[in-house]
Design a protein that fits this description.
Two copies of one chain form a homodimer.
Chain A: H1 9-16, H2 20-27, H3 35-48, H4 54-61, E1 66-71, H5 76-90, E2 96-101, H6 109-120, E3 124-127, H7 135-144, E4 147-152, E5 162-165, H8 167-180, E6 186-189, H9 196-211, E7 221-222, H10 228-239, E8 247-250, H11 253-265, E9 275-280, H12 283-287, E10 293-296, H13 299-311, E11 324-325, E12 328-330
Parallel strand pairs in A: 1-2, 1-3, 3-4, 4-5, 5-11, 6-7, 6-8, 8-9, 9-10
Antiparallel strand pairs in A: 10-12
Helix pairs in contact in A: 1-2, 1-3, 5-13, 6-7, 8-9, 10-11
The structure holds a DNA duplex.
DNA sequence: ACCACGATTACCACCGGTGTCAATTAGATC
DNA sequence: GATCTAATTGACACCGGTGGTAATCGTGGT
């Protein structure tokens, strides 16, 4: 099992009877190189199974081949989708993916991120929501000289370095969809306070009602925490109302499913007695019964785009459509016309 | 925004009026160094905010500070738990975590893993189930000279480099628990074929029955794929049996919840008409109603242990209890005595 | 055959650390 | 104060690549 000593560029150079630099040119596909030598070097490389040492390359180039996802998001499905998207974005390149969670509530969050970046010096980082909403963290990345892209629920304060999806519009469409089905009393389960995405989603909710000439009834709006339990709690409160809503929009799927459970416990039939729309399009949403009509949030696409942007050569910074990815409404079985009883 | 040029060891050396080597000693907490110089160097480091370049260190030490999780596992919660555990395991060190998914069914899986390892040269890798069960992949890591630890559902062919949990025993206990409650007709929803963990779980199931003097009835054993849908399908088949079981053990929580749904569709009450036990203790299991009695699989602990083992100094290879982590049964609300009707 | 010139290739320094070993310094002993 | 030994510190090569520039090669023109 002897120590497997990796061949180095010097070994290749010696065997191919060329200088290291020439080998380096072959590795980097430099055009100023004759076909003959290229072939010769390539055959030596193949023969001894040479792979350039990434650490040496990183040192010489003063850049690494690693991108990192920095997050503070407890949702497993979200994270996995992000990772999948980023991996798609770097597929076929020499880049690898690191993950680094941080604690949003820690007072040392900035120091922690700085620490991570300085300790690993990744080529670039993707800041995931909700920490992507803190401009000082983006600033920090800039100061540290590391490229970064933020993933957001909406154009943040500055569009630069941001891949986003328009939550407000998505929710407006979803709620309009309920209205088109004839619902006029529509409940809302909000997300946690203090972040942009829940705010945007609420704004979209209100815009849809207003566009249809409906009044926003505060009694139908309940706070939630993006957790299943908070959905149950809020759902229960809503269905126990004297004048209960005929439909509910929940700011994420987990809460929507919580509402389903709560409604059923109260003897309501879904969707006959209560239509429900969620947000995220998690796998779960198609597993529950009835399957959940929900807003498909293009996480994978966003993450893929973010990763691509990150590793794109400087100067490719064209902004525009590609940085703002569309959501869409996935119509399943949890919405019907309201009961006319 | 000028280019943020990182101070290097040379800057520190110059400012502190010592050689780079001395600075290096300070960084590495070498004992052969006078307190006076150490203090002086440290103050310079603090002043200019010097952080050693990880790539240069990696090159000189011929080892870098990255561990990677290599997986082929579609389950989001599992992955996130593993990541959490590994991050706990490397917390406080200079190590970072990379993730690399591979495709179990791809014929190039070995080449893909080799590619990843050679391209990134991580310090070590953790092979997650189910690919951890393929001995040739562990072999590959050994050949490539990268440290590795496998996470398994049981002692695999060789205990070396393996952190595991005894699934067979866990399932035996879970099924015995059902038997103790008076169940004698117990259904089993299996996991996918071809992997160790489902096999072990089935073995545990049979052992429990045999230990209680019960016969294993093939009619009560249904294949599953670890997915919610497969649980629904199998559950439906079971409850439609003429002589249906009074309890079901499903090889993971998702399928267990599928069984719940299927049973309810057929008009059965859970747990009164059908007791259910799952495996994994995913968050979902406590969210469903009734909450699911399930086997807690110590993923986080296993991953933490695996990461620690990976970065432990050579020679720390003591085997034993720490490498085999205990599962436990989490008693919730999905198990009661069988109906005597 | 000779020269200019572009295409190839080699040489050497350098990226920012660490290992080795020699040189220097300090403290102890007589 | 001289000598010896142990404790500190420094000089230099090296890890395995890349950049810049000089040297060499081949070719066409005259």
């Amino acid at each position: 099992m002897g120590t497997p000593i990796k061949p180095t560029i010097n070994d290749v150079a010696r065997l191919a009877q060329v200088s290291k630099k020439t080998v380096s040119r072959v590795i980097n596909k430099s055009p100023l190189l004759s076909d003959k030598t290229r072939k010769r070097v390539e055959s030596v490389i193949a023969e001894i199974g040479y792979v350039p040492n990434p650490q040496a390359r990183a040192l010489a180039l003063r850049r690494n081949f690693i991108v990192a996802a920095i997050h503070d998001n407890p949702n497993a499905q979200f994270l996995v989708n992000v990772q999948q998207g980023m991996l798609e974005g770097i597929a076929g390149t020499d880049f690898g993916l690191m993950v680094q969670p941080v604690d949003r509530n820690s007072p040392t969050i900035a120091a922690d991120i700085r620490d991570f970046i300085e300790r690993q010096r990744p080529y670039g980082v993707v800041l995931l929501p909700p920490i992507s909403e803190k401009p000082e963290l983006a600033q920090l990345c800039g100061d540290l000289g590391v490229r970064y892209v933020r993933m957001g629920s909406v154009k943040l304060d500055t569009a630069e370095h941001t891949v986003s999806s328009n939550d407000r519009e998505a929710v407006r469409r979803a709620v309009s969809y309920l209205i088109e089905h004839g619902h006029t009393r529509i409940g809302l389960i909000e997300g946690p306070e203090g972040f942009t995405s829940p705010r945007e989603r609420r704004a979209g909710f209100e815009e849809a009602l207003e566009a249809a000439g409906l009044k926003v009834d505060p009694a139908l709006i309940w706070p939630g925490k993006y957790t299943f339990e908070s959905g149950v709690t809020a759902g229960q409160a809503l269905v126990e109302l004297k004048n209960r809503p005929t439909a509910v929009f929940a700011c994420n799927d987990e809460m929507a499913i919580g509402v389903m459970i709560a409604a059923r416990r109260s003897g309501l039939a879904i969707p006959e007695d209560l239509s429900i729309v969620g947000f995220d399009d998690t796998p779960l949403s198609s597993h529950v019964w009835p399957s959940l009509t929900t807003v498909h949030w293009p996480i994978v696409d966003m993450a893929r785009t973010a990763a691509r942007k990150l590793i794109a050569p400087e100067g490719d910074k064209e902004t525009g459509a590609e940085w703002l990815l569309p959501s869409s409404l996935v119509e399943r079985d949890s919405v019907v016309k309201p009961n006319s009883d």
